[in-house]
Amino acid sequence: MTEEERVNLTIDARAIGVPKGTLVIRAAEMLGIDIPRFCDHAHLMPLGACRMCLVEIEGQAKPVTSCTTVCAEGMVVRTQETSGMARKAQIGVLEFLLANHPLDCPMCDKGGECPLQDQVLAYGPGESRFVEPKRRYAKPVAISGRILLDRERCVLCARCTRFANEIAGDPFIELFERSALEQVGFFAEAPFESVFSGNVVQICPVGALTSVSYRFVSRPFDLVSTSSACNHCPSGCGLRADARDGRIVRQLAVPDSKVNDAWICDKGRYGFAYVGDPERLRTPLVRRDGELRPAPWTEALAAAAAGLKAAGDKGTGVLVGGHLADEDAYAWAKLARTALSSNDVDARLRVGSPEEDEVLSRIAGRAGPTYADLDAARVVVLVGLDAHEEAPILWLRLRKAALRFGVGVVVVGSWAGRAIPGGKYAPARPGREAAVLRALALGEGEAGELLRASRGRVVVLVGERLAASPAGLAGAWSLVEAVDAQFGWVPSRPNGRGLLDAGVHPALLPGGRRVDDSWARATVSEIWRTELPKARGRDGVEILTAAARGELGGLILAGVNPAREFPGWPGLHDMFNPAGFTVAIGLFLSEVARTADVVFPAAVAQEKECSFTNWEGRSRKGRAAVAAPGAALPDWEIAGRLASELGAPWTTSGREELVAELEGLRSAPVSAAAGPIQVTEAPSLDGMVLACATTLLGEGVALRGARDLEGAAGPVRATLHPDDARRLGVTPGSRVRLGTSTGTAVLEASLDACVAPGCVRVPWERGGFRASELLDPGKLVVACRVELERGDGR
Q1: Among 88, 283, 579, 717, which has the highest number of CB atoms less than 10 A from its own CB?
Q2: At residue 246, what are phi and psi to the nearest 5 degrees?
Q3: Fold of 131-276
Q4: What pTM was computed for the model?
Q5: Radius of gyration of the chain (CA)
Q6: Which CATH topology does 688-788 take?
Q7: CB–CB of 486/458 below 8 Å?
Q8: Nearest to 662 by CA among 634, 636, 638, 632
């Protein structure tokens, strides 16, 4: 920082130099000087509403708000610690706030962690001069299914309304009237349905806003707080889990300016009830006499090893869940290739395109673009990615980049997703993304011209959905090369990047090493002390197909339930009889686990030391907040014990050694040069094409028991472009029958110009609806018939 870029001032007789534009309250924080405040928040625009942060500035006749005053050269500031004027002003502010604020601290959820409570004790008057009755309102008011409002507690700081307007862009409660009559108003016909709504509870300084699930549950001094990382999506948010009596009762955002600022989505905040679900598996189960019965670990491990050894030449496939931690995923990938001598290991329960292997090998184990790079870019292109639904904090950061730094956002795909201010949409029917990307690379259209003009300052973020589009990934890479852009991959699974880096892929070893590269195999073989299989393994679809045909002797399902997740497989829960021998590892006795031969109970992220890798490639650490139920163990330990039982040369004896081994493989150089990217021919499809949308609040284990999120997902609809709807005679609210080669479904129709012409958009899963029932697992793009249903249901 040069002299021209900084200003020098003194605060309470202490000198400091700060960058130009720094607020006085931030400069005081740099010196460790605490100035009380209510409305100020580091990630919200200055307002000066509460007047609590008043300070004296030499030369000013009256005290000024430090949260709105910019530091100037030679400024002399005195806070309440050295200025009688500032202290007297703050006492007056507190006296006015307490005139109508209820003194119900013993029953208020904020009691014990309330800034008003703390500041009254530190700076307030010893007694009140107000004896008149306080204002009263009906309470609490439900402003959504998750948030309750006690209006009499509000100190009118406007943090909540500013968050809704500035950060989330969602309509929220507003402040009405003036002076002593000012109060919070809300819209009874428009509840606050935002996937970021829980943030207003966390930033409310006085307990006016509370969560339905946490209200009257605990006091902060009864909680044990543990820092962790959210594993519900690839954003990688910092998280704090608060537990009481061994049970998690709430989760909060941990501020991290490099990732999530100070926010998390509601799924991350409220999606934890499954951790303490009484139906969690607590002990291993072994099938005896046709039924699963409890067994000690020694017996269960021996039974699993014997069954997998009996698989013989048919081999064993390993499927890994996308929520598993880095070390868990690495342990299962290592077990597959050492103990089972197989590259049949994958986490993708979908069909992929041939170019996917090459593109993923180029990014695995390597640093990609970061959130900071999004702020510095001129244009960010999202391809096959609905950031609001698949990575909500990424969407917030893109919105922030657009509003504060003027970053342009271009969305390419079958629907635009929630709009970013000033963003552009390039519609692409499923299977035609590559053609649209080629046009952008050539500079065609307004978006193409913008990208050409921004050469060298472009970030292309690709969603995992693009891998199911013919030549989609190849088209994205061509665009990257054409405009000298950074390439980022945003997986649909929470720890998809960590799984990729760990080698959970049939063609890739840890760190992106190619299975067909002899030098790469030799490097890993030396560390693992065993010869590795050379041929590319089966992917997830091929593993399950082989299992259904009886071509596999064994199957390991680590944190995955194919009967629920695998697209378009009728009667999947009945297919494991010909699979030979099945081992399931998970939290609950799922449909598939019920058919398994051995079941192991696993620990979740909040019950163990763990690490995750977000879409940037940034490592996020987690610590145990509560104990695992019964005899449940981390996946990495289950895999290690099973490998030992199978006689594999397991070279690590604990988590620390396993993590160190993984990090070594991630950071070591990779020999194989980038090869040519194969291009898949797009099928010629007449009529409509099905577009399946991943939704944040769909279904799944993460939302099990989360009563705050019940009903928040909204109705299930089939959405069409208005032009298609007119052609088909479909009107909003009418019932339409969707038909594919594998199934049919009847849904209510909705119209939206942000859906690409020629496709019908449906949620992946919601309200009992499963898009997988309409998909063919062997096809990249699925044709869909759309017919208006008659009143008689035909």
Answers
A1: 579
A2: 75, 15
A3: N-terminal domain of TfIIb (2.20.25)
A4: 0.94
A5: 28
A6: Barwin-like endoglucanases (2.40.40)
A7: yes
A8: 636
